[in-house]
Amino acid sequence: MNLIEETVASIAPLDETAMRDARDLQARLTKPPGSLGVLEEVSVRLAGLAGQCPPPLPEPAAVAVFAADHGVHAQGVTPWPQEVTAQMVANFLVSGAVINAFAAQVGADVTVVDIGVAAELEEAPGLLRRKVAPGTADMTAGPAMTAEQVRRAVETGIEVARDLHGQGAPGGVGGRPPRTGRAPGACSPGTWGSPTPPRPPR
Length: 202
Fold this sequence. Notes:
The protein contains 7 helices and 4 strands; from the N terminus they run αααβααββαβα. By secondary structure, it is α/β, with parallel strands linked by helices. Helix 2 packs antiparallel against helix 3.
């Protein structure tokens, strides 16, 4: 059994009692039903994960930002040069980004993971160099990643989460820098059942 299979097998079902209690709590709050949108369901799922309602705040919390470049950048899906990715990473590392401000509000540490930045990044505090490849391939010309690269990337995410948990963080949030990632995200639904890759939005 590989790391991904072990991780999937270890995921327990959500606690139905805690989720029912969370929905009951939402129904008793002084607000129109559903007015908080998806946040209401997030609170229910968090209760299910924690096995209690309300779910405890993760203390200390951790944020992991996974940075990489998309090969589809060559199609002009963003006006920004690819070099901006490395600059964004540098900004994360000096606490100059919005995610750093959000994390500071809850006392969370921010770890930046180079999972596939095209540029070579120098060692720096808070940076984990786990590069699978120097960016993905252009998804309009073929697969963006090989199956092996996908496996390594997913396993890296599992390992980073496990390590942060081992350092005392009971809960965490993962994310990516917002730039050319919007194009693959927009194209993903169009690939379901389609043998040819769709053109990215410009």
